Each structure stands twice: as structure tokens, then as C-alpha cells.
Amino acid sequence: MILVDSSVWIDFLSSRPGPGGQELRRLIEDAAPVAITGVVVTEVLQGLRRDVKRIEADLSLFDLLEASGFATYRNAAALFRLARSKGISLTTPDALIAAIAVENGAEVFSLDRDFVRMAPLAGFRLHQP
Predict the structure, then answer these.
(1) What pLDDT digit, counting tens, does each position of 79-105 carry?
(2) Residues with Cβ < 8 Å from 34, sequence gap 6 or more?
(3) Exposure of 74 by Cβ count < 10 A (0-12 exposed, 13-18 middle, 19+ buried)?
(4) What residues does each domain of the chain span?
(5) CB–CB of 78/122 below 8 Å?
(6) Which CA distances in Å does 122 have to 34, 46, 81?
(7) Is residue 104 a contact partner of residue 3, using CB atoms and an 8 Å limit?
């Protein structure tokens, strides 16, 4: 399973997708197991200025990985604290995405360098195009 971060979706939806957007297109065309999570849906949709209904419908077709309960949020907070102790600044949504990826054994596909620094701390794999 590949949990795709909002940075890749935004690149994918742009008028001139870069390498991340092109890789996501390849994954979709190859029917790879692409997934999203609620916070990613929110981040992508809040920035839209066009084709909102179509993109909402398209995103709804992918597997939705979500927090399994209190433990997910506790694990995200622990990761946030661990990263901070190592001098790594994270956002709460990124820590939550990482915790959800770990719980589901998913790779993370992101253009955000914070995930590269987080991966060894959290124990998830990065999707490398």
C-alpha cells in the first residue's frame, strides 16, 4: 500500500506535473495500491479553485486509511516529540500521516523532505520513484 501525501496530489493536479505527479499517474495507470487519508483529502481539497466536484469524486475512489483510535493520535504525538528532540520540526498533520502509515504498513509517497527525516524515526518506508 502506498499512502500518497498531499504534496504529490497537488503536483499531480497541477497544469504541469513534475516528477512526483508523473509517478503518481504511473502508479494509478498500473493499478498500484494507492491510498489517501482524511487529512490529505482535506489539504488537497482546501486548496482547489476549479473542478472541485470532479476531484472530490476522483479522490473518493482510492482506499482511505484512517486513524484506528486513540493509539494513532498518541503515536503521532510521540513521533512529534521524538522528532523535536532530534531537532526535526514536524507539523501535526505530517506526524499523523506517518502514524497512520506505520499502523497500516504503508509506504509514504511525499515530496516533503520532512518525511525523509521522519522515516527512520517512525519506521515507515518511503516510496522511491
Answers:
(1) 999 999 999 989 999 999 999 999 999
(2) 2, 4, 24, 27, 28, 62, 63
(3) exposed
(4) 2-122
(5) no
(6) 20, 27, 11
(7) yes
The DSSP 8-state label assigned to residue 126 in this structure reads B
Neighbours of 60 (CB within 10 A): 10
From its phi and psi, is residue 105 left (phi > 0), alpha (psi between -120 and 50) or beta?
A: left
CB 2 within 8 A of CB 107: yes
- Is the pLDDT score of 47 beyond 90? no
Q: What architecture does CATH give domain 2-122?
A: 3-Layer(aba) Sandwich (3.40)
Phi and psi at residue 37, in whole multiples of 5°? -135, 165
What's the whole-model pTM score?
Answer: 0.94
Helices (H) and strands (E) in the chain — how many of each?
7, 4
Do 51 and 61 meet the contact criterion of CB atoms below 8 Å apart?
A: no
Instruction: State how far the Cα of 96 lies from the Cα of 80, in Å rounded to an integer.
Output: 9
